[in-house]
Amino acid sequence: xxxxxVAGLWLCAVTxxxxxxxxxxxxxxxxxxxxxxxxxxxxxxxxxxxxxxxxKKGGIVGYFLARFVYTVDPKKMQKLSAPANALIADELYTYxxxxxxxxxxxxxxxxxxxxxxxxxxxxxxxxxxxxxHDVIIEQIDFLSKEQIRDNTIxxxxxxxxxxxxxxxxDHGSEPAAEEAPAH
Length: 183
Description:
It is a single chain. By secondary structure, the chain is of the alpha+beta class. It has a domain at 43-145: 2-Layer Sandwich (Tetrahydropterin Synthase, Chain A). The chain contains 6 helices and 4 strands, in the order H-E-E-E-H-H-H-E-H-H. It has helices at residues 2-28, 74-79, 84-98, 112-127, 145-157, 161-171; strands spanning 43-46, 50-56, 59-72, 132-144. Strands 1, 2, 3 and 4 form a 4-stranded antiparallel β-sheet that branches.
């Protein structure tokens, strides 16, 4: 009987010692985690393809098509009251329309790095803190009105030679011949 009591006390002491040891070792290893390196702890937010009309001399000269990827802090993104994609798209449209230095028709004068920095700074200014860390361009294109018109004509005619003649007729290069009805 005494052996059972001693064995029970021995089990209680070992259990209490194990619990005490596990709590003491777990609290010392709970040091704060180091901050992740830049881009290591950030989320990537991809925009839809944005189509921005380019206005010049009172008319549309073409369309700027782009898809961007933004690196944002996920904790700050959860705090936003508005959807991040809507906020980013709105700020991008506002920046592209209000900045006279961006001229997509003049490829030589277009500064992509300045545009990316300007978009990032405009979004961060609107949010009121550093929300966007980097702007990555996934796709960027400029289509003139003439290119869009030619592509539309080719699609309608199925890309045949008659479609090319119709495209030239629309541009005034070659007069369109009217066919007489065959009765």
